[in-house]
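Example is below:
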Amino acid sequence: MLQTFFTEEHDLFRKSVREFAERELAPHADEWEEAKDFPNEVFKKMGRLGFFGAGYPEEKGGCGGDYWHVTALCEELPRSRMAGLNMAMMVQAQMATPIIGEIGTPEQIDEFLKPALAGDKIAALGVSEPDAGSDVAAIRTTAKRDGDDYIINGQKTFITSGARADFITLAVRTGGPGFAGISLILFPTNTKGFKVGRKLKKIGNHTSDTAELFFEDCRVPARYLLGEENLGFYYIMQNFQGERLVAAIAGMAAAQLLWDDAFQYANERSAFGKPLAKLQVWRHQLVQLLTEMEAGKWLTYRCVDLFNRKVPCVKEVSMAKLYVAELANKVADRCLQLHGGWGYIEDFHVARAWRDIRLLSIGGGTSEIMREIIAKTVGL
């Protein structure tokens, strides 16, 4: 049935991502998790292999293909066994950059998008602030026009790749209060007055750096304005659909890996004289999770199909993000419980994944925000 969506070309791309994740990334998982960092060379390698360019047209620095190529990338990269690294790669490929390809000028595409897709420049998305997470309309970072420049002042937080980024797709306030006064600016991090604050200590996703950023009288050329002034809120909401869909796809893949590990463990580990898989309580829990995961996968694929055909799908994407985030947390919790005491030991991937996957119902729009979006789309 998957042949409806995935062609031989998609399968070959999937195979190359899987091999890269398993051979080049997964062997370093323990080391890089312990270091809470990974080499920037990973960006260059993935760029050279064309992974970041999946779904982007060749004239904009991409490798062509469609959103099913992006889906294959999101489904296979979790085999690295490092959710933090995966998130940094997805920010690079599908969160900080798509809006540049959609509304950027040819000069902006040449200066920012093409180097990012090649892995030569590291990108970050700068929206969240200490007092404005899901409430994007409340951001306070300002950009005031001064001749041919904008002068930027403010603060961002929870910024993935913020400590290492070469540029930031930055949400700023150029107008009055509320959603109507927001713009997007492409911000080079070598700009005078920019400073990286703390690298935030997180309970999971350790391999990605998550930073707070400070902007003090940072002067950038007005030509770095992305799209039209004061339409940034709409661009961000547009960009969020891809970000949330990526989260749903990757979340389902991460849950499937956890289930696969649990299935293997249940057949190998014995209790009371028989494998765990022969105990009804665990047999039933595993098949219940498998059933719910199948439903989540097809809800997500429905969104990919709509998104790929450029059919409006705010409701469906919000549903997928909500359902998968809640389900993935459930899968992680149940799979850790099945491992018993060993599930609480760092030697088992499930321990790390249990922490990492908690972010799914927070990042990119909380589950509460997803429910509110869905309610509005159905007239509640």
